[in-house]
Amino acid sequence: MAGEPQDDCLFCKIVAKEIPATVVRETETTLAFRDINPQAPTHVLVIPKAHYADAAALAAGDPAAAADVLREAGEVAAQEGADSYRIVFNTGAGAGQTVFHTHAHVLGGRGLQWPPG
Ligand code: 5GP
Ligand code: ZN
């Protein structure tokens, strides 16, 4: 069923605390934790606790949780003291998505080039 935990999903395992993560914020519906391979001084992943493969699936299946993820991404940036930052949802393998549980990358703490490449 949509949103249910998936046995083979890394981020569902982090939500279930079966795999450790450095959590920086948590709400009833979201979890924010540091990326294991940071690409900037601030690199935090914000995920819905419910399993949806990508941002569009989340927005379609649980719009309130999608809004929660966006709000929490802003809260993470504020908590980290990043006044300029980027929120990225890689969607599809061709765009660099490697974990198919929706996650917002919150990147900040250094200059960010545009376009990103
Ligand atoms: P994607 O490439 O799917 O947009 O992003 C997946 C992100 O998850 C990558 O930036 C990667 O470094 C991060 N990641 C992969 N495995 C783990 C893990 O076990 N723990 C944490 N904290 N981050 C992970
Ligand atoms: Zn999952």
Automatic annotation (TrEMBL):
Transmembrane segments: none annotated. Pfam families: HIT (PF01230). Residues 10-117 form the HIT domain. One of its GO terms (molecular function) is catalytic activity. This is Histidine triad nucleotide-binding protein. A motif (Histidine triad motif) lies at residues 101-105. It comes from Streptomyces longispororuber. The active site is at H103 (tele-amp-histidine intermediate). PROSITE patterns: HIT_2.
